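ok, trying the design again with the full structure, not the truncated one.
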C-alpha cells in the first residue's frame, strides 16, 4: 500500500493531476466539471496517497487486508468492519498531512463550513455507483474537525455494507483506495437531484428534477417526498410538475446538521421556480454532453444561484418504455389483467397466444355456463399488445340481467364451491397428471411431428381445464381468510390478542415441501466434504451444467452421483412449478440453477431451518386458537369455530392447487422443442427454442411438411421481427384494466381496489402497494425479471419482481423482504412471505421500473409502502 513520496497528498479541486487513481471517482468528476466551467463550490482533494501514507505509517495495511479477506459471507461483514474501523480510528495522521489539510482548509476562509465527502477509486463509475455507500459529513468547521472527518471518511471504506458491495461487484480489497473531497458548504435554500434521463420511464429526451427545501440529505436518504419536475430536453418545456407536501428539511446547526419541520406555508410551495428549473436543466444537459451519457446530479440553490455538488453516471437506467396505444379493441368491452393473466406478466409468445389462450377461454366459458353466470361467448382471453387480458363484453341490458339473476344463481355457486376440492383433487388433477405421464413415457424422437403437436394440444387443454377448476379452490380460500379476519377483528380480538395472521401460519403446502426437500438435500451435502467445498466455490449455473454432464467435477465420485440422483428426484417432484405460465419460459426441471442458488445458501449454513420455522408457526397458531376457544362461549364461540375452520381448511390448498398449473410443462416443452429440432435441421428456424415464436397455424403447417419430407419454409425473418416487437412491448407497463379511464368498473361497481396492481403511482421516493405481510426492513434491492437472473440474489436482499409464483419460492429463504408489480393480499407472494416472516408490499405496478438493484429501500409491509433510499 505504499506510494512514492513525489505523489501529491493534497490537490486543488481543479488540478489537472486529479485523476481517478489519485482522487477517486467523485473527486475526478468534480475536477472535470470545474475545468469545464460548471458552477462547482471551491475546495480541495485529500488524495489516495495521503490515505496510503496513513495506513503505512500506522502499520495497519496487512491487518486490514487479512481481516477483509476473512469476510467471505454477509454474516461476517459487520464483525470485519468493526475490527478494521478500530484499526483506522486508532491511528495517527502524519504531521505533514495534517498541516497540509489545515492550510488548504484555511485558504477557503476562516472557520468556513465545509462538506467532507468520501471518494473511492471504484466509485461513481459506469455500472458501479457506490451511491450512498460511503460517508459524507456536512457543516464541518475548523481544521481539527476537518481532519477528524477525513479520518472517518477513510474508515467508511470498510463499513459492512461497502465490504458487501465490493464482494458483489467482484472488486478485490487490495485494488481499491480512497480519497476525500473537502468543499465549501453551500448554505442551500433548496437542493435535490437531477437525472438527465427519466429514471422512471427510461425516456432519454426527458430530464427529471427532485427538489426539496434545505440541504439535499433529506432527499438522498429518502426521508422527504420531493417535488418532481420533468422537463422535455429538446425545447426545455416542463412536461409535468408535481408539488409534494415536503414535511421535513435538513438544516445546518453549530454542531453539524439536523432535520426540522418545514414551515407550514412552504410545505406545498414549489422549491424551484420555473426559471430555476430551466437553468438546472441546461446545466444538466451540459454535464450529460461532457460525459457522453446519462448522469445523476446533486445540486443546491443558494441566493438564486445553482451549484453542482456531484455528478455520477446513471448505472441502471431502464430501457425506454414503448409508446403503446392502449385503446380498447371494442367500445363495449371491459378488459382486465387478472386471474390467469396475473401469472403471465410479460407479453405472450406467439405460440402460447395462439395455442393456449383459446384453450383457457374455452375452459372458462364452460365453467361460466355450468354456473349459469354469464351468457355464452361474453368472456374470453385475448391480447392487447401481446399482453393477456380478459375481455368481458356486456351491454347495459346484459349487465342488468346478470345482476338481477344473481340471487337465483347463488345455490349453484354454493354447490360448486362445496365440490371444488373433489373436482380438483379427484378430477382435473389426476386427468392432467395422467396425460402428462403418458407423454413422458413416449419416445418423442420417434413420434411424428403432427402427433407431437396433437399431444401438445391435449396437454394444453388439460392444463386449461385444471387451471379453471382451481378457481373454485382459490375462490373458497380468498373468501375464507377475509371472512375470518373480519369476524376476528370486529367480534373476537382484544388488544393483547395476536393478529389474525397467527391463526393461519405453520401449515404444510407444496412450496413448503419443496423448501424442505432442498434443505434436506443441503444438510446431506454439508456432510460430504468434497461436495460441500465444491458448492462453496462454484456458481449455480456451473453446478447445473455439471449435473447435466456425464463427467464428475469432484474427487468423491460416489458423493457426486448420489447428489445427482437426489437432486434429479427433487426436480421430478417440484420441477414443474412455473416462473411464468407461458410455456415458452423455462421451468426448474430444465433450468435448475434457481434451485441450486438456494441449495448453496443452505449448504453454507445460512438461512433458517424450515422445519423449525414451520413448527414455531404451528405452535403459535395452536396456542392462539386454544386461548380463544377456552375464553369464548355461546354464539361467539360457535362463530369463531366456524370461520376459523373454514379459513384453516382452505388456506393450504390454495398453494397446493397453484403449484401444479404447469404440471405438464416439462414434457410439453420437450415435445415442442423436438419439433423445433427438426425445423432447425431443415433450416426453417435457427434453434429449437425458436419454435415458441411461431403461431399455432404456422406450426401445424410445418408439422405437416416435416412428416411429408417437404420444405417447411424460412421462418427466421418473421421470428426476428417478432422478437424485436416483444422486447419493445416488454418495456411497457400494461394497465390492469382497459379502458384506462373507468375500465375497472363492472356491473356498475368499481373493482379497482381488487385489481392485482396499482393503476397509477405518483413520482417521488414512496411507492404504494398492498401491504401483504407485516413488518419493516431496510436492505439492498435485487430486481429480478426471471430465473436466468436468480444468481444475482444475495442473502438478505429485498426481492423485487413483476410477480412471484411457486417456482420463485426458493428465493424467499434468502430474502429479507418482497416487492412485486402484480399481486394482492391473497396472492402466492403474500401467503409465502407470511410463512417466511418477511415483510411484503405487492401490486405496486411500477416496482421493477423504479427500483434499481443495489439501491437501499425500506419495505413496510404493515403500511403497504416502499421507500426508496432506505
Amino acid at each position: 500500500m505504499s506510494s512514492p513520496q513525489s505523489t501529491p497528498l493534497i490537490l486543488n479541486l481543479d488540478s489537472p493531476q486529479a485523476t481517478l487513481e489519485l482522487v477517486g471517482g467523485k473527486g475526478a468528476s468534480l475536477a472535470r466539471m470545474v475545468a469545464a466551467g460548471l458552477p462547482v463550490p471551491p475546495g480541495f482533494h485529500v488524495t489516495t496517497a495521503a490515505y496510503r501514507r496513513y495506513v503505512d505509517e500506522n502499520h495497519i495495511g496487512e491487518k486490514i487486508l487479512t481481516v477483509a479477506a476473512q469476510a467471505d459471507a454477509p454474516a461476517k461483514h459487520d464483525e470485519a468492519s468493526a475490527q478494521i474501523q478500530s484499526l483506522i480510528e486508532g491511528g495517527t495522521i502524519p504531521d505533514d498531512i495534517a498541516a497540509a489539510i489545515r492550510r488548504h482548509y484555511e485558504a477557503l476562509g476562516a472557520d468556513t463550513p465545509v462538506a467532507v465527502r468520501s471518494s473511492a477509486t471504484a466509485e461513481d463509475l459506469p455500472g458501479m455507483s457506490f451511491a450512498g455507500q460511503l460517508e459524507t459529513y456536512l457543516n464541518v468547521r475548523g481544521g481539527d474537525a476537518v481532519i477528524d472527518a477525513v479520518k472517518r471518511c477513510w474508515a467508511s471504506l470498510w463499513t459492512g455494507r461497502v465490504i458487501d458491495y465490493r464482494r458483489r461487484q467482484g472488486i478485490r480489497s487490495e485494488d481499491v483506495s480512497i480519497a476525500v473531497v473537502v468543499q465549501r458548504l453551500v448554505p442551500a435554500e433548496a437542493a435535490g437531484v437531477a437525472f438527465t434521463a427519466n429514471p422512471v420511464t427510461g425516456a432519454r429526451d426527458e430530464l427529471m428534477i427532485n427538489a426539496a427545501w434545505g440541504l439535499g440529505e433529506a432527499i438522498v436518504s429518502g426521508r422527504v417526498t420531493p417535488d418532481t419536475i420533468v422537463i422535455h430536453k429538446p425545447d426545455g418545456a416542463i412536461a409535468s410538475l408535481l408539488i409534494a407536501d415536503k414535511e421535513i428539511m435538513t438544516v445546518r446547526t453549530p454542531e453539524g446538521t439536523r432535520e426540522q419541520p418545514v414551515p407550514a406555508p412552504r410545505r406545498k410551495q414549489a422549491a424551484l421556480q420555473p426559471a430555476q428549473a430551466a437553468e438546472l436543466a441546461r446545466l444538466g444537459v451540459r454535464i450529460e454532453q461532457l460525459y457522453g451519457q446519462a448522469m445523476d446530479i446533486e445540486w443546491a440553490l443558494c441566493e438564486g444561484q445553482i451549484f453542482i455538488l456531484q455528478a455520477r453516471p446513471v448505472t441502471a437506467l431502464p430501457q425506454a418504455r414503448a409508446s403503446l396505444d392502449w385503446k380498447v379493441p371494442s367500445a363495449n368491452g371491459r378488459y382486465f389483467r387478472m386471474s390467469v393473466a396475473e401469472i403471465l406478466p410479460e407479453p405472450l409468445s406467439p405460440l402460447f397466444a395462439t395455442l393456449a389462450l383459446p384453450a383457457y377461454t374455452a375452459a372458462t366459458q364452460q365453467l361460466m355456463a355450468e354456473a349459469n353466470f354469464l351468457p355464452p361467448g361474453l368472456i374470453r382471453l385475448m391480447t392487447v399488445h401481446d399482453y393477456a387480458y380478459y375481455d368481458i363484453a356486456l351491454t347495459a341490458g346484459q349487465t342488468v340481467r346478470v345482476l338481477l339473476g344473481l340471487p337465483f344463481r347463488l345455490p349453484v355457486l354454493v354447490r360448486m364451491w362445496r365440490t371444488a376440492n373433489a373436482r380438483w383433487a379427484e378430477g382435473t388433477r389426476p386427468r392432467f397428471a395422467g396425460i402428462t405421464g403418458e407423454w413422458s413415457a413416449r419416445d418423442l424422437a420417434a413420434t411424428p411431428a403432427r402427433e407431437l403437436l396433437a399431444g401438445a394440444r391435449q396437454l394444453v387443454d388439460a392444463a386449461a381445464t385444471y387451471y379453471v377448476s382451481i378457481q373454485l379452490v382459490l375462490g373458497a380460500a380468498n373468501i375464507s381468510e377475509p371472512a375470518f379476519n373480519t369476524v376476528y377483528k370486529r367480534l373476537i380480538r382484544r388488544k393483547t390478542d395476536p393478529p389474525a395472521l397467527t391463526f393461519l401460519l405453520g401449515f404444510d403446502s407444496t412450496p413448503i415441501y419443496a423448501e424442505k426437500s432442498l434443505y434436506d438435500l443441503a444438510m446431506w451435502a454439508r456432510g460430504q466434504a468434497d461436495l460441500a467445498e465444491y458448492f462453496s466455490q462454484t456458481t449455480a449455473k456451473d453446478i447445473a451444467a455439471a449435473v447435466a454432464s456425464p463427467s464428475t467435477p469432484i474427487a468423491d465420485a460416489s458423493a457426486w452421483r448420489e447428489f445427482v440422483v437426489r437432486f434429479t428426484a427433487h426436480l421430478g417432484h417440484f420441477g414443474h412449478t412455473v416462473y411464468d405460465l407461458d410455456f415458452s419460459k423455462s421451468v426448474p426441471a430444465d433450468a435448475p440453477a434457481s434451485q441450486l442458488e438456494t441449495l448453496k445458501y443452505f449448504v453454507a449454513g445460512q438461512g433458517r431451518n424450515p422445519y423449525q420455522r414451520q413448527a414455531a408457526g404451528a405452535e403459535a397458531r395452536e396456542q392462539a386458537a386454544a386461548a380463544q376457544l377456552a375464553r369464548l362461549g355461546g354464539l361467539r364461540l360457535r362463530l369463531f369455530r366456524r370461520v376459523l375452520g373454514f379459513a384453516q381448511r382452505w388456506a393450504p390448498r390454495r398453494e397446493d392447487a397453484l403449484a401444479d398449473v404447469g404440471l405438464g410443462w416439462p414434457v410439453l416443452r420437450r415435445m415442442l422443442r423436438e419439433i423445433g429440432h427438426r425445423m432447425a435441421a431443415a433450416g426453417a428456424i435457427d434453434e429449437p427454442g425458436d419454435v415458441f415464436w411461431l403461431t399455432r397455424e404456422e406450426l401445424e403447417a410445418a408439422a405437416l411438411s416435416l412428416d411429408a419430407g417437404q420444405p417447411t419454409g424460412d421462418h427466421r425473418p418473421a421470428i426476428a421481427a417478432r422478437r424485436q416487437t416483444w422486447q419493445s412491448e416488454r418495456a411497457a407497463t400494461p394497465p390492469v384494466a382497459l379502458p384506462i379511464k373507468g375500465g375497472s368498473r363492472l356491473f356498475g361497481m368499481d373493482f379497482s381496489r381488487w385489481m392485482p396492481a396499482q393503476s397509477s403511482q405518483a413520482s417521488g421516493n414512496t411507492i404504494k402497494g398492498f401491504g401483504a405481510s407485516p413488518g419493516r426492513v431496510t436492505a439492498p434491492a435485487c430486481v429480478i425479471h426471471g430465473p436466468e437472473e436468480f444468481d444475482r440474489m444475495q442473502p438478505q436482499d429485498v426481492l423485487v419482481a413483476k410477480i412471484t409464483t411457486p417456482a420463485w419460492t426458493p428465493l424467499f429463504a434468502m430474502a429479507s423482504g418482497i416487492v412485486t408489480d402484480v399481486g394482492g393480499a391473497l396472492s402466492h407472494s403474500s401467503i409465502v412471505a407470511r410463512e417466511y416472516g418477511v415483510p411484503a408490499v405487492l401490486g405496486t405496478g411500477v416496482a421493477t421500473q423504479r427500483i434499481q438493484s443495489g439501491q437501499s429501500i425500506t419495505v413496510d409491509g404493515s403500511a403497504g409502502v416502499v421507500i426508496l433510499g432506505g
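Keeping the full-length input from now on. Confidence is low (pLDDT under 50) at residues 124-132.
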